[in-house]
Amino acid sequence: MISQFFVLSQRGDNIVFRDYRGEVQKGSAEIFFRKVKFWKEDGEEEAPPVFNVDGVNYFHVKVVGLLFVATTRANVSPSLVLELLQRIARVIKDYLGVLNEDSLRKNFVLVYELLDEVIDFGYVQTTSTELLKSYVFNEPLVVDAARLQPMSPAAIFMQGTKRMPGTAVTKSVVANEPGGRKREEIFVDIIEKISVTFSSSGYILTSEIDGTIQMKSYLSGNPEIKLALNEDLSIGRGDYRSSFGSGAVILDDCNFHESVRLDNFDLDRTLTLVPPDGEFPVMNYRMTQEFKPPFRINTLIEEAGALKAEVILKVSAEFPSSVTANTIIVQMPLPKYTTRVNFELEPGALGQTTDFKEANRRLEWALKKTVGGSEHTLRAKLTFSQELHGNITKEAGPVSMTFTIPMYNASRLQVKYLQIAKKSSTYNPYRWVRYVTQANSYVAQLPKSELPTSPQPQFPFDSRVPAIAKPEKPEGPKQLDLPPSHHLPEPALPTLAHEHNSAFLSPPSPLNQSSSS
Protein backbone atom coordinates (compact mmCIF):
# COMPACT_ATOMS: atom_id res chain seq x y z
CA MET A 1 0.00 0.00 0.00
CA ILE A 2 1.09 3.60 -0.53
CA SER A 3 0.33 6.71 1.50
CA GLN A 4 0.80 9.49 -1.04
CA PHE A 5 1.12 9.96 -4.78
CA PHE A 6 2.33 13.14 -6.46
CA VAL A 7 3.79 14.38 -9.74
CA LEU A 8 6.52 17.02 -9.83
CA SER A 9 7.87 19.07 -12.70
CA GLN A 10 11.58 19.46 -13.43
CA ARG A 11 11.52 22.69 -11.38
CA GLY A 12 9.96 20.92 -8.40
CA ASP A 13 6.46 22.35 -8.89
CA ASN A 14 3.71 20.16 -7.44
CA ILE A 15 1.39 19.40 -10.38
CA VAL A 16 -0.68 16.56 -8.87
CA PHE A 17 -0.90 15.53 -5.20
CA ARG A 18 -3.12 12.91 -3.59
CA ASP A 19 -2.86 11.84 0.07
CA TYR A 20 -4.62 8.49 0.55
CA ARG A 21 -3.90 7.62 4.19
CA GLY A 22 -2.62 10.71 6.05
CA GLU A 23 0.39 8.82 7.46
CA VAL A 24 3.12 11.00 5.91
CA GLN A 25 3.69 14.72 6.56
CA LYS A 26 2.34 17.20 4.02
CA GLY A 27 5.77 18.61 3.13
CA SER A 28 6.98 15.30 1.72
CA ALA A 29 7.07 16.64 -1.86
CA GLU A 30 9.49 19.43 -0.90
CA ILE A 31 11.63 17.02 1.14
CA PHE A 32 11.76 14.58 -1.80
CA PHE A 33 12.70 17.16 -4.42
CA ARG A 34 15.40 18.75 -2.24
CA LYS A 35 16.89 15.31 -1.58
CA VAL A 36 16.86 14.32 -5.27
CA LYS A 37 18.20 17.64 -6.55
CA PHE A 38 21.15 17.71 -4.17
CA TRP A 39 21.83 13.99 -3.89
CA LYS A 40 25.44 13.40 -2.80
CA GLU A 41 25.33 10.05 -1.00
CA ASP A 42 27.32 6.90 -1.83
CA GLY A 43 29.39 8.79 -4.39
CA GLU A 44 26.47 8.74 -6.84
CA GLU A 45 25.40 11.75 -8.91
CA GLU A 46 21.71 10.78 -9.16
CA ALA A 47 19.31 9.60 -6.51
CA PRO A 48 18.29 5.92 -6.71
CA PRO A 49 14.65 5.11 -7.53
CA VAL A 50 14.04 4.09 -3.90
CA PHE A 51 15.40 5.72 -0.73
CA ASN A 52 14.35 6.41 2.88
CA VAL A 53 14.26 9.73 4.72
CA ASP A 54 13.19 9.90 8.39
CA GLY A 55 11.28 6.63 8.20
CA VAL A 56 9.45 7.47 4.95
CA ASN A 57 10.13 5.37 1.86
CA TYR A 58 10.22 7.38 -1.38
CA PHE A 59 9.71 5.65 -4.75
CA HIS A 60 10.03 7.57 -8.00
CA VAL A 61 10.32 7.14 -11.76
CA LYS A 62 11.01 9.80 -14.38
CA VAL A 63 8.64 9.86 -17.36
CA VAL A 64 9.15 12.44 -20.14
CA GLY A 65 10.77 14.85 -17.68
CA LEU A 66 8.11 14.47 -14.97
CA LEU A 67 8.73 12.82 -11.58
CA PHE A 68 6.06 10.32 -10.55
CA VAL A 69 6.47 9.72 -6.80
CA ALA A 70 4.88 7.49 -4.17
CA THR A 71 5.53 7.51 -0.41
CA THR A 72 4.80 5.02 2.34
CA ARG A 73 5.94 4.10 5.83
CA ALA A 74 5.16 0.42 5.22
CA ASN A 75 7.69 -2.16 4.04
CA VAL A 76 6.30 -2.77 0.55
CA SER A 77 7.89 -4.35 -2.51
CA PRO A 78 9.90 -1.71 -4.44
CA SER A 79 9.27 -3.51 -7.74
CA LEU A 80 5.52 -3.40 -7.13
CA VAL A 81 5.45 0.35 -6.45
CA LEU A 82 7.78 1.24 -9.34
CA GLU A 83 5.65 -0.81 -11.75
CA LEU A 84 2.53 0.88 -10.37
CA LEU A 85 4.03 4.34 -11.06
CA GLN A 86 4.85 3.34 -14.64
CA ARG A 87 1.32 2.03 -15.18
CA ILE A 88 -0.27 5.16 -13.73
CA ALA A 89 1.78 7.25 -16.16
CA ARG A 90 0.65 4.99 -19.02
CA VAL A 91 -3.03 5.23 -18.04
CA ILE A 92 -2.85 9.03 -17.82
CA LYS A 93 -1.17 9.17 -21.24
CA ASP A 94 -3.86 6.90 -22.71
CA TYR A 95 -6.54 9.34 -21.57
CA LEU A 96 -4.77 12.65 -22.23
CA GLY A 97 -2.96 11.63 -25.41
CA VAL A 98 0.01 13.84 -24.50
CA LEU A 99 1.81 13.43 -21.18
CA ASN A 100 3.45 16.68 -20.12
CA GLU A 101 3.04 19.43 -17.55
CA ASP A 102 0.63 21.45 -19.68
CA SER A 103 -1.74 18.54 -20.33
CA LEU A 104 -1.76 17.55 -16.64
CA ARG A 105 -2.68 21.07 -15.53
CA LYS A 106 -5.42 21.43 -18.13
CA ASN A 107 -6.94 18.05 -17.26
CA PHE A 108 -6.43 17.99 -13.49
CA VAL A 109 -10.08 17.03 -12.85
CA LEU A 110 -9.77 13.97 -15.11
CA VAL A 111 -6.39 13.05 -13.60
CA TYR A 112 -7.74 13.13 -10.04
CA GLU A 113 -10.73 11.05 -11.12
CA LEU A 114 -8.36 8.46 -12.59
CA LEU A 115 -6.25 8.38 -9.41
CA ASP A 116 -9.33 7.81 -7.25
CA GLU A 117 -10.32 4.82 -9.38
CA VAL A 118 -6.82 3.34 -9.68
CA ILE A 119 -5.99 3.55 -5.95
CA ASP A 120 -8.42 3.32 -3.02
CA PHE A 121 -7.08 4.08 0.48
CA GLY A 122 -3.56 3.24 -0.71
CA TYR A 123 -4.47 -0.10 -2.31
CA VAL A 124 -4.37 -0.68 -6.07
CA GLN A 125 -7.73 -1.45 -7.70
CA THR A 126 -6.96 -1.57 -11.43
CA THR A 127 -4.59 -0.08 -13.99
CA SER A 128 -6.50 -1.24 -17.06
CA THR A 129 -7.50 1.57 -19.39
CA GLU A 130 -10.32 -0.56 -20.77
CA LEU A 131 -11.88 -1.22 -17.33
CA LEU A 132 -11.50 2.41 -16.25
CA LYS A 133 -13.66 3.57 -19.17
CA SER A 134 -16.68 2.19 -17.29
CA TYR A 135 -16.02 4.44 -14.27
CA VAL A 136 -14.37 7.60 -15.64
CA PHE A 137 -16.66 9.96 -17.53
CA ASN A 138 -14.73 13.23 -17.88
CA GLU A 139 -13.58 14.09 -21.40
CA PRO A 140 -9.94 15.18 -21.85
CA LEU A 141 -8.97 18.63 -23.10
CA VAL A 142 -6.64 17.83 -25.97
CA VAL A 143 -3.29 19.64 -25.99
CA ASP A 144 -1.96 20.76 -29.36
CA ALA A 145 0.62 18.20 -30.49
CA ALA A 146 2.53 20.94 -32.34
CA ARG A 147 3.71 22.26 -29.00
CA LEU A 148 5.71 19.10 -28.28
CA GLN A 149 9.47 19.38 -27.92
CA PRO A 150 11.45 18.52 -31.09
CA MET A 151 12.89 15.31 -29.58
CA SER A 152 9.75 14.14 -27.83
CA PRO A 153 8.54 10.55 -28.35
CA ALA A 154 6.21 11.86 -31.05
CA ALA A 155 9.14 13.28 -32.99
CA ILE A 156 11.51 10.31 -33.15
CA PHE A 157 9.44 8.66 -35.87
CA MET A 158 9.20 11.80 -38.02
CA GLN A 159 11.89 10.74 -40.46
CA GLY A 160 12.10 10.13 -44.16
CA THR A 161 9.71 10.98 -46.93
CA LYS A 162 6.83 8.92 -45.56
CA ARG A 163 5.95 10.34 -42.17
CA MET A 164 3.62 9.41 -39.41
CA PRO A 165 0.58 11.62 -38.91
CA GLY A 166 1.04 14.29 -36.26
CA THR A 167 -1.36 12.47 -33.94
CA ALA A 168 0.44 9.13 -34.15
CA VAL A 169 1.39 8.96 -30.48
CA THR A 170 -0.56 11.92 -29.10
CA LYS A 171 -4.16 10.72 -29.37
CA SER A 172 -6.44 10.00 -26.46
CA VAL A 173 -8.14 6.61 -26.47
CA VAL A 174 -11.41 8.16 -25.29
CA ALA A 175 -11.57 11.45 -27.18
CA ASN A 176 -13.14 11.56 -30.66
CA GLU A 177 -11.81 13.30 -33.72
CA PRO A 178 -13.17 16.77 -34.62
CA GLY A 179 -16.67 16.33 -35.96
CA GLY A 180 -17.45 13.43 -33.63
CA ARG A 181 -15.84 10.75 -35.80
CA LYS A 182 -13.22 8.33 -34.56
CA ARG A 183 -10.41 7.46 -36.95
CA GLU A 184 -9.97 3.71 -37.24
CA GLU A 185 -6.25 2.94 -36.86
CA ILE A 186 -3.78 0.82 -34.94
CA PHE A 187 -0.13 1.44 -34.03
CA VAL A 188 2.52 -1.24 -33.47
CA ASP A 189 5.94 -0.17 -32.16
CA ILE A 190 8.97 -2.47 -32.00
CA ILE A 191 11.28 -0.81 -29.46
CA GLU A 192 14.72 -2.26 -28.74
CA LYS A 193 17.24 -1.17 -26.10
CA ILE A 194 20.81 -2.25 -26.77
CA SER A 195 23.51 -3.00 -24.16
CA VAL A 196 27.04 -3.43 -25.54
CA THR A 197 30.46 -3.41 -23.86
CA PHE A 198 33.56 -3.04 -26.03
CA SER A 199 36.98 -4.12 -24.80
CA SER A 200 39.99 -1.80 -24.95
CA SER A 201 40.97 -3.56 -28.20
CA GLY A 202 37.60 -2.98 -29.86
CA TYR A 203 36.16 -6.47 -29.44
CA ILE A 204 32.66 -7.01 -28.08
CA LEU A 205 32.72 -8.39 -24.54
CA THR A 206 28.97 -8.44 -23.86
CA SER A 207 25.95 -7.67 -26.01
CA GLU A 208 22.24 -7.88 -25.30
CA ILE A 209 18.96 -6.58 -26.70
CA ASP A 210 15.89 -5.96 -24.55
CA GLY A 211 12.91 -5.48 -26.84
CA THR A 212 9.19 -5.00 -26.67
CA ILE A 213 6.35 -4.94 -29.18
CA GLN A 214 3.96 -2.20 -28.08
CA MET A 215 0.45 -1.83 -29.46
CA LYS A 216 -2.03 1.02 -29.25
CA SER A 217 -5.45 0.44 -30.77
CA TYR A 218 -8.06 2.95 -31.86
CA LEU A 219 -10.27 0.31 -33.48
CA SER A 220 -13.96 0.35 -32.60
CA GLY A 221 -15.55 -2.92 -31.59
CA ASN A 222 -12.23 -4.58 -30.67
CA PRO A 223 -11.84 -6.79 -33.76
CA GLU A 224 -9.51 -9.79 -33.75
CA ILE A 225 -5.98 -9.13 -34.98
CA LYS A 226 -3.31 -11.45 -36.35
CA LEU A 227 0.29 -10.32 -36.12
CA ALA A 228 2.95 -12.42 -37.89
CA LEU A 229 6.66 -12.39 -37.01
CA ASN A 230 9.69 -13.88 -38.79
CA GLU A 231 9.09 -17.47 -39.82
CA ASP A 232 12.67 -18.39 -38.85
CA LEU A 233 12.19 -16.98 -35.33
CA SER A 234 13.55 -19.33 -32.64
CA ILE A 235 12.93 -19.14 -28.88
CA GLY A 236 15.67 -20.40 -26.58
CA ARG A 237 19.21 -21.44 -27.35
CA GLY A 238 18.19 -25.05 -27.87
CA ASP A 239 15.65 -24.14 -30.55
CA TYR A 240 17.94 -23.51 -33.52
CA ARG A 241 15.70 -23.71 -36.57
CA SER A 242 18.48 -22.60 -38.84
CA SER A 243 22.14 -21.72 -38.66
CA PHE A 244 23.51 -18.35 -37.63
CA GLY A 245 24.76 -17.54 -41.10
CA SER A 246 21.29 -17.80 -42.61
CA GLY A 247 20.10 -14.79 -40.60
CA ALA A 248 17.74 -16.56 -38.20
CA VAL A 249 16.43 -14.53 -35.28
CA ILE A 250 17.14 -16.36 -32.02
CA LEU A 251 15.58 -14.99 -28.84
CA ASP A 252 16.76 -16.18 -25.44
CA ASP A 253 13.31 -15.81 -23.88
CA CYS A 254 10.06 -13.90 -24.26
CA ASN A 255 6.67 -13.36 -22.63
CA PHE A 256 3.28 -12.25 -23.95
CA HIS A 257 0.34 -10.12 -22.89
CA GLU A 258 -2.58 -11.96 -21.33
CA SER A 259 -4.79 -11.18 -24.36
CA VAL A 260 -2.44 -12.96 -26.80
CA ARG A 261 -3.39 -16.45 -28.02
CA LEU A 262 -0.54 -18.71 -29.13
CA ASP A 263 -2.54 -21.37 -30.97
CA ASN A 264 -0.52 -21.03 -34.19
CA PHE A 265 2.66 -19.50 -32.82
CA ASP A 266 4.73 -22.68 -32.92
CA LEU A 267 3.49 -23.42 -36.44
CA ASP A 268 3.85 -20.12 -38.31
CA ARG A 269 4.91 -17.54 -35.64
CA THR A 270 1.53 -15.80 -35.70
CA LEU A 271 0.05 -14.04 -32.66
CA THR A 272 -3.73 -13.74 -32.38
CA LEU A 273 -5.31 -11.23 -30.02
CA VAL A 274 -8.24 -8.93 -29.34
CA PRO A 275 -6.47 -5.70 -28.31
CA PRO A 276 -7.77 -3.90 -25.23
CA ASP A 277 -8.05 -0.11 -25.18
CA GLY A 278 -4.91 1.85 -24.46
CA GLU A 279 -1.25 1.09 -24.94
CA PHE A 280 0.04 -2.32 -23.86
CA PRO A 281 3.04 -4.62 -24.50
CA VAL A 282 2.12 -7.49 -26.84
CA MET A 283 5.46 -9.21 -26.35
CA ASN A 284 8.67 -8.65 -24.38
CA TYR A 285 11.85 -10.40 -25.45
CA ARG A 286 15.57 -10.65 -24.74
CA MET A 287 18.34 -11.58 -27.15
CA THR A 288 22.05 -12.26 -26.61
CA GLN A 289 22.70 -13.66 -30.08
CA GLU A 290 25.56 -11.91 -31.88
CA PHE A 291 24.45 -8.82 -33.77
CA LYS A 292 26.19 -5.99 -35.54
CA PRO A 293 26.37 -2.96 -33.21
CA PRO A 294 25.12 0.27 -34.83
CA PHE A 295 28.08 2.33 -33.59
CA ARG A 296 31.81 1.74 -33.07
CA ILE A 297 33.74 3.87 -30.58
CA ASN A 298 37.52 4.32 -30.86
CA THR A 299 39.46 6.23 -28.21
CA LEU A 300 43.08 7.31 -27.80
CA ILE A 301 44.67 9.20 -24.91
CA GLU A 302 48.24 10.50 -25.06
CA GLU A 303 50.28 12.58 -22.67
CA ALA A 304 51.47 15.83 -24.23
CA GLY A 305 53.66 17.05 -21.41
CA ALA A 306 53.80 17.10 -17.63
CA LEU A 307 50.45 18.85 -17.21
CA LYS A 308 48.73 18.12 -20.52
CA ALA A 309 47.17 15.27 -22.47
CA GLU A 310 45.14 14.83 -25.65
CA VAL A 311 42.02 12.71 -26.13
CA ILE A 312 40.80 11.62 -29.56
CA LEU A 313 37.30 10.17 -29.90
CA LYS A 314 35.98 8.66 -33.11
CA VAL A 315 32.39 7.49 -33.60
CA SER A 316 31.59 5.34 -36.65
CA ALA A 317 27.96 4.74 -37.70
CA GLU A 318 27.80 1.17 -39.04
CA PHE A 319 24.22 1.10 -40.28
CA PRO A 320 22.84 1.83 -43.78
CA SER A 321 23.04 5.36 -45.16
CA SER A 322 19.25 5.44 -45.54
CA VAL A 323 18.92 5.55 -41.73
CA THR A 324 19.63 8.55 -39.52
CA ALA A 325 20.37 8.41 -35.79
CA ASN A 326 19.20 11.21 -33.51
CA THR A 327 20.32 12.74 -30.20
CA ILE A 328 23.73 11.05 -29.94
CA ILE A 329 25.58 11.90 -26.74
CA VAL A 330 29.10 10.65 -25.98
CA GLN A 331 30.43 11.02 -22.42
CA MET A 332 33.82 10.30 -20.90
CA PRO A 333 34.91 10.78 -17.27
CA LEU A 334 38.25 12.60 -16.99
CA PRO A 335 40.91 12.57 -14.23
CA LYS A 336 39.76 14.44 -11.13
CA TYR A 337 42.65 16.92 -11.44
CA THR A 338 41.54 18.12 -14.91
CA THR A 339 41.10 21.91 -14.86
CA ARG A 340 40.49 22.87 -18.48
CA VAL A 341 39.51 21.21 -21.77
CA ASN A 342 39.91 22.71 -25.24
CA PHE A 343 37.86 21.04 -27.96
CA GLU A 344 38.59 20.74 -31.67
CA LEU A 345 35.84 19.47 -33.99
CA GLU A 346 36.40 18.22 -37.52
CA PRO A 347 36.10 20.83 -40.30
CA GLY A 348 32.54 21.45 -41.45
CA ALA A 349 30.95 19.80 -38.41
CA LEU A 350 27.31 20.83 -38.08
CA GLY A 351 24.89 20.17 -35.24
CA GLN A 352 27.66 19.19 -32.81
CA THR A 353 28.27 20.64 -29.35
CA THR A 354 30.95 19.98 -26.74
CA ASP A 355 31.10 20.67 -23.03
CA PHE A 356 33.30 20.03 -20.00
CA LYS A 357 31.24 19.36 -16.88
CA GLU A 358 33.54 20.69 -14.15
CA ALA A 359 31.32 19.49 -11.31
CA ASN A 360 31.87 15.81 -12.12
CA ARG A 361 34.91 16.12 -14.44
CA ARG A 362 33.12 14.74 -17.47
CA LEU A 363 33.61 15.38 -21.19
CA GLU A 364 30.37 15.54 -23.19
CA TRP A 365 30.01 15.49 -26.98
CA ALA A 366 26.53 15.82 -28.51
CA LEU A 367 25.62 15.19 -32.14
CA LYS A 368 22.16 16.19 -33.32
CA LYS A 369 22.07 13.77 -36.27
CA THR A 370 24.30 11.10 -37.75
CA VAL A 371 23.74 9.44 -41.12
CA GLY A 372 24.61 5.77 -41.52
CA GLY A 373 28.12 5.10 -42.83
CA SER A 374 29.50 8.42 -41.55
CA GLU A 375 32.36 8.99 -39.11
CA HIS A 376 32.90 11.84 -36.66
CA THR A 377 36.04 12.76 -34.75
CA LEU A 378 36.63 14.94 -31.69
CA ARG A 379 39.97 16.10 -30.28
CA ALA A 380 40.13 17.37 -26.72
CA LYS A 381 43.25 18.88 -25.14
CA LEU A 382 43.30 18.44 -21.37
CA THR A 383 45.08 20.64 -18.84
CA PHE A 384 45.83 19.27 -15.36
CA SER A 385 46.46 20.94 -12.02
CA GLN A 386 49.17 18.46 -11.04
CA GLU A 387 51.76 16.33 -12.76
CA LEU A 388 50.64 12.97 -14.10
CA HIS A 389 51.50 9.84 -12.16
CA GLY A 390 51.23 6.43 -13.80
CA ASN A 391 48.82 5.60 -16.59
CA ILE A 392 46.23 8.27 -17.32
CA THR A 393 43.80 5.67 -18.67
CA LYS A 394 43.39 4.26 -15.18
CA GLU A 395 41.84 7.53 -14.02
CA ALA A 396 39.73 8.28 -17.10
CA GLY A 397 36.86 6.55 -18.89
CA PRO A 398 35.12 4.40 -19.83
CA VAL A 399 33.40 6.09 -22.77
CA SER A 400 29.60 5.81 -22.76
CA MET A 401 27.10 6.62 -25.48
CA THR A 402 23.37 7.21 -25.83
CA PHE A 403 21.41 7.44 -29.08
CA THR A 404 18.06 6.87 -30.78
CA ILE A 405 17.75 5.32 -34.25
CA PRO A 406 14.24 5.43 -35.78
CA MET A 407 13.18 2.79 -38.33
CA TYR A 408 16.06 0.44 -37.49
CA ASN A 409 16.30 -2.69 -35.36
CA ALA A 410 19.45 -4.67 -34.71
CA SER A 411 17.73 -7.96 -33.86
CA ARG A 412 16.15 -8.26 -37.35
CA LEU A 413 12.82 -9.13 -35.73
CA GLN A 414 10.12 -8.05 -38.18
CA VAL A 415 6.34 -7.74 -38.28
CA LYS A 416 5.59 -9.51 -41.55
CA TYR A 417 1.90 -8.65 -41.68
CA LEU A 418 -0.88 -7.24 -39.54
CA GLN A 419 -4.32 -8.64 -40.34
CA ILE A 420 -7.55 -7.19 -38.95
CA ALA A 421 -10.83 -9.08 -39.07
CA LYS A 422 -13.24 -7.32 -41.44
CA LYS A 423 -16.58 -6.15 -40.08
CA SER A 424 -17.80 -5.10 -43.53
CA SER A 425 -16.57 -4.83 -47.10
CA THR A 426 -15.79 -1.14 -46.62
CA TYR A 427 -13.96 -1.56 -43.31
CA ASN A 428 -10.28 -0.84 -43.95
CA PRO A 429 -8.50 0.77 -40.96
CA TYR A 430 -5.07 2.38 -41.03
CA ARG A 431 -2.14 0.25 -39.89
CA TRP A 432 1.13 1.75 -38.64
CA VAL A 433 4.26 -0.25 -37.81
CA ARG A 434 7.27 1.58 -36.47
CA TYR A 435 10.74 0.57 -35.26
CA VAL A 436 13.17 2.34 -32.95
CA THR A 437 16.51 1.33 -31.41
CA GLN A 438 17.90 3.03 -28.31
CA ALA A 439 21.06 2.68 -26.25
CA ASN A 440 20.59 1.17 -22.83
CA SER A 441 24.24 0.70 -21.78
CA TYR A 442 26.69 1.37 -24.60
CA VAL A 443 30.22 1.43 -23.15
CA ALA A 444 33.76 1.26 -24.56
CA GLN A 445 36.76 0.60 -22.33
CA LEU A 446 39.93 2.65 -22.76
CA PRO A 447 43.26 1.14 -23.89
CA LYS A 448 45.21 0.01 -20.83
CA SER A 449 48.73 0.10 -22.25
CA GLU A 450 51.14 2.96 -21.65
CA LEU A 451 51.29 5.27 -24.62
CA PRO A 452 54.52 7.08 -25.62
CA THR A 453 54.69 10.81 -25.11
CA SER A 454 54.59 12.78 -28.34
CA PRO A 455 53.38 16.25 -29.29
CA GLN A 456 51.04 14.85 -31.94
CA PRO A 457 49.25 11.53 -31.23
CA GLN A 458 49.14 8.89 -33.93
CA PHE A 459 45.76 7.25 -34.35
CA PRO A 460 44.57 4.49 -36.69
CA PHE A 461 41.90 6.62 -38.30
CA ASP A 462 44.07 9.76 -38.68
CA SER A 463 44.87 9.97 -42.38
CA ARG A 464 47.86 12.24 -41.77
CA VAL A 465 49.91 9.59 -39.95
CA PRO A 466 50.56 5.88 -40.52
CA ALA A 467 48.17 3.50 -38.82
CA ILE A 468 49.35 1.64 -35.73
CA ALA A 469 49.47 -2.13 -35.60
CA LYS A 470 46.15 -3.91 -35.30
CA PRO A 471 45.37 -5.09 -31.77
CA GLU A 472 45.69 -8.76 -31.09
CA LYS A 473 42.59 -10.69 -30.13
CA PRO A 474 42.53 -11.16 -26.33
CA GLU A 475 42.98 -14.69 -25.11
CA GLY A 476 40.73 -16.59 -22.77
CA PRO A 477 37.18 -17.88 -22.77
CA LYS A 478 35.65 -14.55 -21.75
CA GLN A 479 35.47 -13.29 -25.32
CA LEU A 480 31.86 -13.67 -26.39
CA ASP A 481 31.98 -12.06 -29.82
CA LEU A 482 33.88 -11.84 -33.06
CA PRO A 483 36.54 -9.27 -33.98
CA PRO A 484 35.39 -6.08 -35.69
CA SER A 485 36.62 -7.32 -39.04
CA HIS A 486 34.09 -10.16 -39.08
CA HIS A 487 31.02 -9.14 -41.04
CA LEU A 488 27.83 -10.10 -39.25
CA PRO A 489 24.54 -10.25 -41.16
CA GLU A 490 23.14 -6.81 -41.81
CA PRO A 491 19.95 -6.07 -39.86
CA ALA A 492 16.95 -6.04 -42.15
CA LEU A 493 15.63 -2.52 -42.54
CA PRO A 494 11.98 -2.28 -41.51
CA THR A 495 9.42 -0.79 -43.82
CA LEU A 496 7.01 1.85 -42.59
CA ALA A 497 3.41 0.83 -43.14
CA HIS A 498 1.55 3.96 -44.04
CA GLU A 499 -1.27 3.18 -46.44
CA HIS A 500 -4.69 2.53 -44.98
CA ASN A 501 -5.35 -0.32 -47.39
CA SER A 502 -2.15 -2.15 -46.50
CA ALA A 503 -2.08 -5.35 -44.54
CA PHE A 504 1.28 -6.96 -45.34
CA LEU A 505 4.35 -5.21 -44.02
CA SER A 506 7.23 -7.37 -45.24
CA PRO A 507 10.00 -5.09 -46.58
CA PRO A 508 11.00 -3.98 -49.09
CA SER A 509 8.13 -4.87 -51.42
CA PRO A 510 4.91 -2.80 -51.32
CA LEU A 511 2.28 -3.83 -48.83
CA ASN A 512 -0.20 -6.38 -50.09
CA GLN A 513 -3.79 -5.43 -49.88
CA SER A 514 -5.16 -8.24 -47.81
CA SER A 515 -7.31 -8.60 -44.76
CA SER A 516 -8.95 -11.54 -43.16
CA SER A 517 -12.62 -11.84 -43.67
Explain this structure to me?
The structure is a single chain. With 517 residues, this protein is mainly beta. Helix content is 10%, strand content 35%. The protein contains six helices and 26 strands. The strands form six sheets. It has a nine-stranded mixed beta sheet, covered by helices on one side. It has a five-stranded antiparallel beta sheet with strand order 2-1-5-4-3, sandwiched between helices. A four-stranded antiparallel beta sheet has the order 14-15-10-25. The two termini are 47 Å apart. The C terminus is likely disordered.
Summarize this, please?
This is MHD domain-containing protein. By secondary structure, the chain is mainly beta.
Provide the descriptors you would attach to this structure in a database record:
single chain; 517 residues; mainly beta; nine-stranded mixed beta sheet; five-stranded antiparallel beta sheet; 6 helices; 26 strands; 10% helix; transport
Poorly predicted runs are: 149-168, 240-245, 449-488, 495-517
How much helicity do the residues have?
10-25%
Strand content: 25-35%
Compute the gyration radius: what is it? 25 Å
What gross morphology would you assign?
globular
**Cα end-to-end separation:** 47 Å
| Major β-sheet profile | 9 strands, mixed
Class derived from helix and strand content: mainly beta
For the biggest β-sheet, the strand order reads: 13-16-9-8-26-24-19-22-21
Give me the count of strands. 26
Figure out the total of helices: 6
Nearest-integer average pLDDT = 81
Keywords: Membrane, Protein transport, Transport
Pfam family, one: Clat_adaptor_s
GO cellular component, one term: clathrin adaptor complex
Protein name: MHD domain-containing protein
